[in-house]
Amino acid sequence: MQGLEVRGLSKRFGGLTVSEDIDFDLMPGDRKALIGPNGAGKSTFSNLVTGILTPTSGTIRFDGSDIGRLNEAQRVRLGIAKTFQITTLFRDLTVRENLRLPILERERRGFGFIGRANGHTAIEAEVDDLLGQFALGGLADRKVADLAYGQQRLVELALTLALKPRVLILDEPAAGVPSSETHLIVDAIERLPEDLAVLIIEHDMDLVFRVARQIVVLVQGRILTEGTPEDIAADAQVRELYLGGGHD
């Protein structure tokens, strides 16, 4: 099977079960959202998929191969990447320099070309493509520290995409972003490559319903239900738990 396949995934910390018997698929082109209250186990699930945590039981397969023994860096090289709730950027470098770093790492060239990579036109062309895709061209030579927070999140998303992932996990991409800038995140998600498998972990229900084609609801480490945005909006239990004001 192409894509990501999770079966019977569970994680326990001593006597505390934070993920229990989760079955989950993420195929090329998917746009899925994982929602649930704080403490539901959303970040734990993403950390299990990316190799930050080791499951207590269950399997994680990618393109049919068991990746349970692979660490985080090995999974990134396979094509599984994740953005984080807090931006992890080099604030004293420019946007262009930040985007160059993951490309150099991916190409195993080292960080000797943080400055303009003269003679490496393919690298510069890829940086320019990312700047264009995320509407960052006008900010290319500004330091990240000088950008608005929503713009920083765009840089982080572009940086992650520079790794050329096949599975992209967006961990609360709108966290801390003013509502006036949320459209930047929505627009960026909508411009992602069509064949990229995307999982969005998010509390912002407006964003979720705008970009997700399937929504999975997690409660106390277990999947409560899943379906289209229309299905989820019509589910009385979900509406009471999350969409009626209790989803935060």
Automatic annotation (TrEMBL):
<dbReference type="InterPro" id="IPR027417">
    <property type="entry name" value="P-loop_NTPase"/>
</dbReference>
<keyword id="KW-0813">Transport</keyword>
<dbReference type="InterPro" id="IPR003593">
    <property type="entry name" value="AAA+_ATPase"/>
</dbReference>
<protein>
    <submittedName>
        <fullName>Amino acid/amide ABC transporter ATP-binding protein 1, HAAT family</fullName>
    </submittedName>
</protein>
<dbReference type="InterPro" id="IPR003439">
    <property type="entry name" value="ABC_transporter-like_ATP-bd"/>
</dbReference>
<dbReference type="Pfam" id="PF12399">
    <property type="entry name" value="BCA_ABC_TP_C"/>
</dbReference>
<dbReference type="GO" id="GO:0005524">
    <property type="term" value="F:ATP binding"/>
</dbReference>
<dbReference type="GO" id="GO:0005886">
    <property type="term" value="C:plasma membrane"/>
</dbReference>
<keyword id="KW-0547">Nucleotide-binding</keyword>
<dbReference type="InterPro" id="IPR032823">
    <property type="entry name" value="BCA_ABC_TP_C"/>
</dbReference>
<dbReference type="GO" id="GO:0016887">
    <property type="term" value="F:ATP hydrolysis activity"/>
</dbReference>
<dbReference type="InterPro" id="IPR017871">
    <property type="entry name" value="ABC_transporter-like_CS"/>
</dbReference>
<dbReference type="Pfam" id="PF00005">
    <property type="entry name" value="ABC_tran"/>
</dbReference>
<keyword id="KW-0067">ATP-binding</keyword>
<dbReference type="InterPro" id="IPR051120">
    <property type="entry name" value="ABC_AA/LPS_Transport"/>
</dbReference>
<feature type="domain" description="ABC transporter">
    <location>
        <begin position="4"/>
        <end position="245"/>
    </location>
</feature>
